[in-house]
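Problem 12. The chain below contains 174 residues. Write out its predicted structure in token notation.
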Amino acid sequence: EASFAGWGIRTIAAGEARYNPMSYHNGSIWPHDNALAAAGLARYGFTAAATRVLDAMLDLSQVVDLHRLPELICGFHRRTDERPTLYPVSCAPQAWAAGSVYLLIQAALGLEIDAGEQRITFSRAALPESIERLYLTDLTVNDSRVTLLLERHANDVAVSVLKREGTVEVVAIK
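Solution.
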């Protein structure tokens, strides 16, 4: 918990010598760093930790102006009924932060697209408790297109093909 602040993963864990929750690089929380960390966690089988990061970023998006993830926030520990401490000169919107959402979702879903094989694979897909279902509409692979519904159940995520145009294959690995 020294690294995870509730709003995301800090750049430096609380308790480390250089930790300063208001420092630009030494303890703040960056959405794009969190997306990269979540992708790594998911890649090595730590899907629950990856979805925890996604959930934290979704929570953050609910309390910032216009739901735009900022460049970074201060790394203070999250407290009940308090908003995050915004970094004074953080950019919002910021392209890296906006793009991080897609990598966070990809990580949680274990989503891989192989255009050469015309295949979409979901490996150990997970959704955080805050998301019961997720639609991926008109996901395009080469000349094929699919609309998918992902539904969270007690211990897994069901993947349903709602519409398919072309020969793209959809695989769910449990």
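Discussion. Strands lie at 111-114, 119-123, 133-141, 144-152, 157-165, 169-173. Students who got a different answer should revisit the alignment rule from Section 12.3.
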